[in-house]
Amino acid sequence: MKIKNYRWTIVILIFLATTINYVDRQIIGLLKPVLEAEFSWSETDFAHIVMAFTAAYAIGLLALGRFIDKIGTRAGYAVIIIIWSIAGMFHAMARSATHFMVARFGLGFGEAGNFPAGVKAISEWFPKRERALATGIFNSGTSIGVVLALIIVPWILRNYSWHEVFWITGGIGFIWLIFWLIFYDIPVRQKRLSAEEYTYILNGKGSEAKQEDSGHSEKISWYKLFTFPQTWALITGKGLIDPIFWFFLFWLPSYFSTAYELDLKKVSPELIIIYTATTIGSILGGYFSSLLIKRGWAVMKARKTALFIFAVLELTILLARYTTAAWMAVAIISLAVAVHQAWSTNVFTMASDMFPSGAVSSVVGIAGMAGAVGGILFPILVGYLLDSYKSAGNLTGGYNLLFTICGLTYLTAWTIIHLLTRKHSVVRSGELQ
Description:
Blueprint lengths: L6 H24 L1 H8 L3 H29 L1 H18 L6 H15 L2 H12 L2 H12 L1 H19 L2 H22 L11 H9 L5 H4 L16 H11 L2 H19 L8 H26 L4 H15 L12 H29 L2 H35 L3 H27 L12
Helix pairs in contact: 1-4, 1-6, 1-7, 1-8, 1-9, 3-4, 3-5, 3-17, 4-5, 4-6, 4-9, 6-7, 6-16, 6-17, 7-14, 7-16, 8-14, 12-16, 12-17, 12-18, 13-16, 13-17, 13-18, 14-15, 14-16, 15-16, 15-18, 17-18
């Protein structure tokens, strides 16, 4: 049976995978008080568990991006979700901090493949003018996953135990895998795809459409990717900016507790609103640059214009230092995290704009690893500044300085991206040999 607009079915599948991805990674933080009480963890023990995930995530981004380019999106996505689902379920059998470190390492390694595989699938299934919107939709699964974890983990914990939390959430990945194997293949092999939609997709890919859609993995020199300024533009876009999102994700609860005496033992509508705003930013950010392209703008001009606008909007986070009420801070920070996701969506999409499909996962993996490394290093600065201001009796001042650094970084990153891509836009397949 031919299905009209089948490509959007693919987006839904990747969105659901991304949602599962972020549910699985959030669980350990939500269960931290329960697990600490049962296993007598120290804060150092928990820090090591978190670091195991982060380190594996960085390694996985680098390794799995290339792996997925070699074996293809369909098989690649299947492999990575099996890895992270098994690792997620292994948490239920862990009996020590070391066991949890091993489980988190496996989870981090497997989950790292989600974005390289997702962006590659979008490049295979969507014309360039729709890629940012499609990427924005599946990228919104990151925030939906965080919010969903806040809902389902307490429910499972109330009715069962922490073991079942890991068993149930880990098992969801295998349910998704069944639908993936049934419904996904590249367009040229997908029997449910109508001839009209196939032609529409192919025509919107540009001059290399036939080669990219052939189903054969092209041989690329992975090391040669580092010789292109386009690769370094993506490394900049992720390496400088991703750490800011991790700061928003992990330190905002502490900020609201410090500045506005938020009770973290209760459900926080403030934090739910902030994290939900990332969904809106992800989708609207993708829609905006896609709209510019539909109106006749050149692809790279549309993406960089969108990034510049988002960089300017991000400056509003500097106003957080002047807030006097929690809901004022919620409004400003909600805008900041929404703009971040709009930025992230367009940087991901630029990978498929600038590189042929056969290299997309590799490039996204390299850029994502840069973001992960930044996510390891930036907390060192965060900890140093907050400890310094705390010892001076002005912890809120430390957060204000960090908000200023965050706001200015986007324009810095945009300037570097613009200079690197000013004379170089698209890498052709032949250049990667």
